[in-house]
Amino acid sequence: MTSSQSSEEINVEQPHHVGLIGTGLLGKAVGARLIEHGFSVSIWNRSVDEAQPLLDLGASWSENLLEDCERIFVCLFNSEITLGVLSRMIPSCGPGRLVIDMTTGTPGDADRLSELFNAQQSLYLAAPVSGSSQQTRDGQAMIMVGGDRRAYLACEDLWRVLARSVHFTGDCGSASRMKLVTNLVLGLNRAALAEGLAFADSLGIYAADALCVLMDSAAASAVMQAKGEKMIRSDFTVQARLAQHHKDVRIILDEAASVSLKLPLTETHSQILQVAEEMGLSDLDNSSIIRTYGFKSVADATTKDKFDVQ
Question: Which one of 18, 19, 202, 286 has the fewest CB atoms closer than 10 angstroms to its CB?
Answer without folding.
Answer: 202
